[in-house]
Structures are given as C-alpha cells and as structure tokens.
Amino acid sequence: MEFFSFLTKKKKTGLTLSGGGMRGVAHIAVLRALEEYGLKPDLISGTSAGAIIGAFYSLGKTPAEMLDIVQSNTFFARSSFRFSRNGIFNPEFLTRIFRQYFPEDNFSVLKIPFYAATTELTQGRIEYFSEGKLFDVLLASSSVPFVFPPVIMNGKFYVDGGVLNNLPTEVIQDKCDFLIGSHVNAMGHEDLGKMNLSTEFDRILHLAISSSVYSKSTTCDLFINPPEMLHYSLFRKDKLSTMLEQTYQYTIEKLEEHGFRKPKTKR
C-alpha cells in the first residue's frame, strides 16, 4: 500500500500553499488534518495568504494557535481603508500582526525551511525569498494588486506572488520526495443575480490565474482542492467555521483515498 511505502522510504515531505485572501485560513484546516495523519512537512512554499500561513507554521505555531490568531485579530477593517492609486487598503494591520507574533523580522527564526513567492513588477517575473528580512517579503507576497500597494525592496517593486504563480511548487519539488499542494480557490457555479463588485473581482482574478495552478497540480503527489471555495469571501471572516470544517473533512477524504491512515495512539 502507498501508506506503508511512504513510511519505509522515510520520504521528505514538501507542502505548497496557494493564495486566496481570507480563504487562505483554510490552509490551517489542511495542516490540522495532515498532522493527525502523521504528515508534518519538512519544507514549505507559499504565496500570498499561503505565504503568511506557511511562515506562521514554519515558526512553530500549531493549527490551533494560528486559528486563535485569526480569530483574535481584525482584517480589512474600515480603519485600514484608503482610496489611492496604489491600493484601497493600508497593509499596516498585517505588519502589526507580524511584529506581535514573530520574535524577529528575519527568516532565521523559522524552524522549517520556507520559501515565499513574489511577483517582481519591473521585470515581470517570479522571485522567491528564503532568507533575510521576513516581514516585507510576506507583505509583498500578499500584496494583491489594487487592494494593497506594491512593496519596494532593494529598489524593486513587488506584488502578490499569485499574479504569476498561485501554486509555487517549483521551488521545492526537487528538494522533497513527496509533494503536497493545497489550493483554496476552487470555483463553482455562481448565480449572476447574486454577484456584486467584490465577488466579480474575486472571480475574474482567479480565472486569470487558475490555469497555471491546475496544470501544475499533476506534479503534486497529493493535491488538496476543496470544492466551491469561491463561495467564501476574499476579505471577510464570515462563514469561517463552515469553511474550515469543509476543508478539514475534504482533506481527510483525500488522505484516506491515497491510503493514509491515522497513526494509532499509544495507550
């Protein structure tokens, strides 16, 4: 069985986390399920919200601790709203969260090797970061165009890594033996009468970037892609518990389909 071969070969596990705004919180449910099945990643890559979740997990935060951080903080509040040509939200609320929970603004504090994907605007190419200053990289990786302003690092302009690569598997696939991809933006049918400016923007954004995600999903040994995720908001925390439970149950089903079983607890 695949499960037993996985154990005997002692494979190094890699995990790639997609972007998705507030839907990125669903990665916490994926991590919870993976841990319960004995699959703790040895290295992680991520973009946008997936980069933030990946950094917190690489720091050593448990899924329960990360969920508490999400529930204890406010995201995309009215106080952060600003209408300018560079972005409609001030990302300072993210910086405050980073300063509160990370002991230092540096990749060196992370316990699991971690790679964050960004889009460099001038050359129009993807760039990965795995060392040096951490906070600006996380801001750059999650700077959705027109939502957040670009981040300037070393004289270059950076925006959301998902613009060019919303499932950055390439940076770790040659460094691991078993690759898991977690994508939290699966689209379903949407009633046109219920669409508004926010949902239309969300759908157009993910139509533009989804083709590369699914073409690369075949490189993953396990691809987590819970359905109907665009029914959950890009910016709000409403329906958070429903989204997490759906993602958790879906991940368990995928693990069971691939022959994985929960390790038996010692009495």
Describe, in plain words, how this protein is organized in 3D.
By secondary structure, the chain is an alpha/beta fold. 37% of the residues lie in helices and 17% in strands. The strands form 2 sheets. Strands 1, 2, 5, 6, 7, 8, 9 and 10 form an 8-stranded mixed β-sheet that branches. α2 runs parallel beside α9. The longest helix has 20 residues. The relative contact order is 0.20.
Features:
about 270 residues; alpha/beta; eight-stranded mixed β-sheet; two-stranded antiparallel sheet; 9 helices
Q: Please provide the count of β strands.
A: 10
Most strands sheet: 8 strands, mixed
Gyration radius, rounded: 18 Å
Q: Give unreliable regions as ranges.
A: none
**Average pLDDT for all residues:** 87
Please indicate the percent range of residues in DSSP E strands (runs of 2 or more). Answer: 15-25%
Shape: globular
Percent helix: 25-40%
Number of H/I helices = 9
Structural class: alpha/beta
Distance between the termini: 26 Å
Tell me the series of helices and strands, N- to C-terminal.
HEHEHHEEHEEHEEHEHEH
What is the compact description of this entry?
By secondary structure, the protein is α/β, with parallel strands linked by helices. Helices cover 37% and strands 17% of the residues. The model has no long low-confidence stretch (mean pLDDT 87).
